[in-house]
Amino acid sequence: MTGRALPVIARLFERWGLWVAAALLLAAPLVADYTPFYLALLTEVLVFGLFALAYDILLGHTGVLSLGHSAFVGVSAYVTGLLLVNLRSIPVELAVLAGALGGLVTALLVGPLALRKRGVYFAMLTLALSQIFYFIALMWKPTGGTDGLGNLPRLFLSEVFGGFRLSKRPVTLYYAIAATVFLAMLVVRRIHRSPFGRVMRATKANERRAQACGYDTRRVKLVAFSLSGLFSGLAGALLTVTLEFVPIENTHWTMSGTVLIMTLFGGTGTLLGPFVGSAVFVWMRDFLSKKLEYWEVFVGASFVLIVLFLPEGIVGTLRRLVWMGGLERAPHAPQSLGVPQPSWSTPRSPARLGGVTAPSPLDAPGDLAKPSPSTAGGNNADVPLLESRGLTMRFGGLTAVDGVDFQVRRGELRAVIGPNGAGKTTFFNMLTGVLPPTAGRILFKGQDITALPPHAVSRLGMARSYQVTNIFADLTVLENLRIAVQSRVTTFSLWRNADALREVTERAERMLALLGLGAKRDFPAGALSHGEQRYLEIGIALATEPEFLLLDEPTAGMSPEETKQTADFIRTIAGRVTIVLVEHDMEVVMGVSDRITVLNYGKVLAEGSPAEIRENPDVRRVYLRD
Amino acid sequence: MLFGYPLEVWTTQLFIGLVNGCILILVAQGLSIVFGLMGIINFAHGIFYMLGAYVGWLTVQLTGNFWLSLLVAPAVVGGVGVFVEIGVLRRIYGTKNANFAGVLVTYGLAIMIPDVVRMIFGRPGKPFAVPKLLTGSLFTLGATEIGGYRVFIIAITAALLPLLWLLLNRTNLGMVIRAGTSDNTMVQLLGINVARTWTTTYALGAALAAFAGVITAPLVAVAPEMGGLILIECFIVTVVGGMGSFVGPIAGGLLIGEVLALTGMVYDVFADVVIYLLMAVVLLVRPRGLFGQEGVSEE
Amino acid sequence: MLRLDRIDTHYGLSHILQGVSLTVSSGEAVALLGRNGAGKTTTLKSIMGVLKPRGGRITFEDRDITGSSPHRIVQMGIGYVPEERRVFPNLTVYENLKMARLMVDGGRRMDDYLDRVFALFPPLKARLRNRGRVLSGGEQQMLTIARSLGTEPRLLLIDEPTEGLMPAFVETIGQTILDIQRQGLAVLLVEQNTKLALDATQRVYLIEKGVIRHEGASAALKQDPETRLRYLGV
Question: Residues of chain C whose C-beta is under 8 A from some C-beta in B?
Fold first, then answer.
């Protein structure tokens, strides 16, 4: 019973939850019987909740851990406070806005610096840089040092909002703050649902794959960081209004820890979580502290326990239990792909070489394989689509790839084979911009792409699949494909609803059908069987509508049946895209390729048709070494 | 006169910078060794420093013997380190986001333990007297009397560092640590129980921090908040000097110690800001630090 | 001595070994041949506990060692010469060798051991004080074999020892394997150099895509170019 009821409840909550929340917020003072104490507490919970929500933009949605958020909330609090103290007639709304912008500006200062690094180093950088602001607050006279900034004027809302008094009027203050926080929450929610929100989460799920799909993840993180700074700034400004005072403690690095704790308690990636976390923390601070003198031990201990045992937080865990309870998890044993043998798989024909692509039955007007109008050199069959000249890679004393000249014509299906250590993967990594070559050049459509980063290479029309499955495991199967398609349409759209990008979703659905994964549409990609994941792996690359596709051991770890199906699939898509394939399975290689290049010790040993390679005595010698 | 300050002031500050540097070197060595082997940036490191000071204080309270505390503090806190590694850290090795979780968990400890200390010892700091043997000034440097205790700090650091070097380069434990820093799996494939080495290494790091804590105690206030500031300074030292090498923390410690002292000449609080900026510059220009091992610092 | 019984090993979800069974008897030298990606190294890693099999059993001298931790397995008497050689670059040759002796006697009696090492690989003597990273490929290979022998194994797993080495060195390796056998060790050899492998071993298994396809005497396979071509060639 619960198995069916829970998803229903969850869906109801998703639809009406916001209205319920709004109603609760409106009714709260009534419930609290207008007690100033509880109202003040609630106000604070809302403000800290907003701070945690802002923090979660970075942590829960983009997957970036910052330890320097005290800077945003601190700077904004002081900006608002200083404006109010020194320009006594300034409207409070303007002061709050200025504070929020203060947070944004701080983020724009810190972000580009800190984001040059990743992971723990990034966290340390944010910690250190945020301390600079603490010391400014400490040293600079106008901010009042350890005494904090006080002496704020009596605060009133502007005439526009009714001119209500805020100072010492807990009810009005509460409503003003609640309205602001609610609105801010709506904006943040909008951002999370936008195409940019999807890109953020793809970055969190698998940053390198997101780059390979064409997203400049560094810029994505920068924008997310700035947004986080903006809304943290808003929280800081509201805090000044609430407290009518700016304590220096809020700029100290312990504040960064507090917001981290709140976010983790409540649960990352949710809208409600930050507020739950904030409530828990405020409860601990104001109630627990009365019972337990050393309540902070309790906080720290709970934090450690949550990290170890309940990493999704309270709301996050609830959400997982409710949602996942309704979905079947696919078992781990390799399954058949459930793909009926395509009856329209066309055998390879030599006529395909030279730039004439045979139409696939799945092509419809406006479908995936539109030839790119901007091809340098056009469809001229003489200019190779991809070319490497003297490509070399040296690691210290070891030369992995040694002066490789390599050309692939449009429409070809080329296999690259070679014994162990021949340099195939290194070669691939150089082609896709992952490894900068020691020497040599790579030309794609006649353009030198040697020094380009992976996301730029992707945008030019080159995609790859990985030997070790590299999908967005925490996103649904559909989203894996949708985000890849979206890369060609928009990245930084913050306001639209991502689902409103109809064409993007439709293309993703068609790719889903092509891969035969329709039934697993809403499953988390990590729950797919191995074979299905390998298909998805190729699908993500295909969804970016490349002209050129590199497949790195697509049949790795597959059963014989899955291998055959994959080979057929490759044959199917070969019509719409030029393919270079690294494979060890000789049956696949022989059955699928137009031409084969053999590498040995980083050099090209031989190149030719499958028959020629098979007969080649050098190749035989190198493989059998007998 | 040099840049507007008399020479005597310069020499005094340089000397103080040296003393600062010694403490930083000891703490940073602990952090660097742990990071080199285990890949964990231990946010709880400052806690061990603080605990060392408290255990030292307690020892002096109970026995009246300062020299004893120099042995007891590292030993006891090393034991605490063992508990932390086995009880907390082991649970996150090999999990999906181990580095992330490592930061969070050690951060949580860094919040929790000072309050446990407050609970036991009370909020205000504890006074820690300089041992009688080392009180009084030894010599005059410029216009300032240089106390014997500061010289003691320099001397003991200078004595300890070679011992540490010997430990790392002439003992079996050190050899296993060095091997594990480059290839942990291969060490296991030679029949060695790596888990035990990790525990020992973490305890060693904790002990070093604790030792630094107890010898600093007479100079600063023994307070629960001690850990925070030293941790941040220590991070800066390891970023600037580089991690995973023996020389890195030494170079970093001396540099930061001197920068703190010399900018302190100009404007006291300004000193802290300068080292943060210095760290930012180093991270951007030479990410692995002055003497860091390649590949150790990049994510 | 060593028995693998229908081992299933995965790498993530990738089902690399699909029911692999093989045996190595005491004092025997057995070769495991196959193309890239066939599962040879995965088989060795499964034995050593670096990868834990999800199905099947591995027994060594009648003890079940399936999924035990690597250091235990080494202590039980299986040595491993890894594919990429993996000498400790920052340790000297002496220290590399001493690392192997820690589990045996804490590195206290090195002299006997060093004598044995130099008898097998004379060039290492001159390089004793050099760090691992400055050694040539061939010297590193010698070092890693000598090092793995230091753990006093009764069975030695050797993964692609001739990869990236000069032909002259290949002969040395072949000779070394025969020498080791003469000292009573059993050997399981993974190699791409078919000639070397068949010359140095008594039995051979051919593996393809995680499944054993052929088993027989090495001498017999030497006379069977068709089978070799089928599973190893292009």
Answer: 48, 50, 69-71, 74-75, 80, 82, 86, 88-91, 95, 98-100, 102-104, 106-107, 147-148, 150-151
Question: What predicted TM-score, i.e. pTM, was given to this entire model?
Answer: 0.84
Pair A112, A222: CB distance under 8 Å: yes
pLDDT for A336 equals 27
Enclosing H/E stretch for A31: helix A2-31
Are B54 and B118 a contacting pair, CB within 8 Å? no
Cα-Cα end-to-end distance for chain C? 34
CB B53 within 8 A of CB B226: yes
CA–CA distance, C123 with C190 (Å, rounded to integer): 25
Question: ∠ at Cα B91 (B90, B92), nearest 5°?
Answer: 95
Token pair 């949605």 in the structure block, residue: A61
CA distance A283 to A290: 10
Q: Which residues does chain B have within 8 Å of residue A69's beta carbon, measured at their own beta carbons?
A: none
Compare B285 and A11 and report the one with higher pLDDT. Answer: B285
pLDDT category of residue C77 using cuts at 50, 70 and 90: very high
Average pLDDT, chain A: 83
Q: Is the pLDDT of residue A39 over 50?
A: yes
Chains that touch A (3 or more CB pairs under 8 A): B, C
- Closest residue in chain B to residue C88, using alpha carbons only: B179
8 Å CB contact of A584 and C194: no
- pLDDT greater than 80 at residue A346: no
User: Which residue type, as a one-letter code, is found at position A425?
Assistant: T
Tens digits of per-residue pLDDT, A522-571?
A: 888 988 888 888 889 999 999 999 999 999 888 887 878 888 989 999 99
CB C90 within 8 A of CB B182: yes
Tokens for A441, please give them: 């050049």
Percent of chain A past pLDDT 70, that is, above it, reads 88
ipTM entry: 0.90
Q: Amino acid letter at A603?
A: K
Q: Tell me the helix, strand and coil percentages in chain C, rounded to 5.
A: 40, 25, 30
- Cα distances from A608 to residues A548, A590, A605, A615, in angstroms, run 20, 12, 11, 10
Q: Is the pLDDT of residue A367 over 60?
A: no
**Contact A530/C228, CB-based, under 8 Å?**
no
Q: How many helices (H) and strands (E) does chain C have?
A: 9, 10
Burial class (CB in 10 A: 0-12, 13-18, 19+), B120: exposed
State the Cα angle at A231 between A228 and A232, rounded to 5°. 80
Would you state the pLDDT for residue A476? 92
DSSP 8-class letter at C234: -
Give the number of other CB atoms < 10 A from CB of residue B181.
Answer: 22
Which residue does chain C place closest to A620, by CA atoms?
A: C233
Per DSSP, helices labelled H in chain B are 7-38, 45-63, 66-87, 98-121, 148-170, 172-182, 184-188, 194-216, 226-241, 247-266, 270-285
Which phi and psi (to 5°) does residue B92 adopt? -105, -10
With contact defined as beta carbons under 8 Å apart, do B141 and B11 qualify?
Answer: yes
Single out the residue of B233, B177, B222, B232 nearest to residue B201, CA to CA: B177
Q: Is C120 left (phi over 0), alpha (psi -120 to 50) or beta?
A: alpha
**Locate tokens 């890894």: which residue?**
C82
> Sign of the CA dihedral A586, A592, A596, A602?
negative
Kindly give, in sequence order, each residue whose CB lies less than 8 Å from that of residue A2, ignoring residues fewer than 6 positions away.
Answer: A325
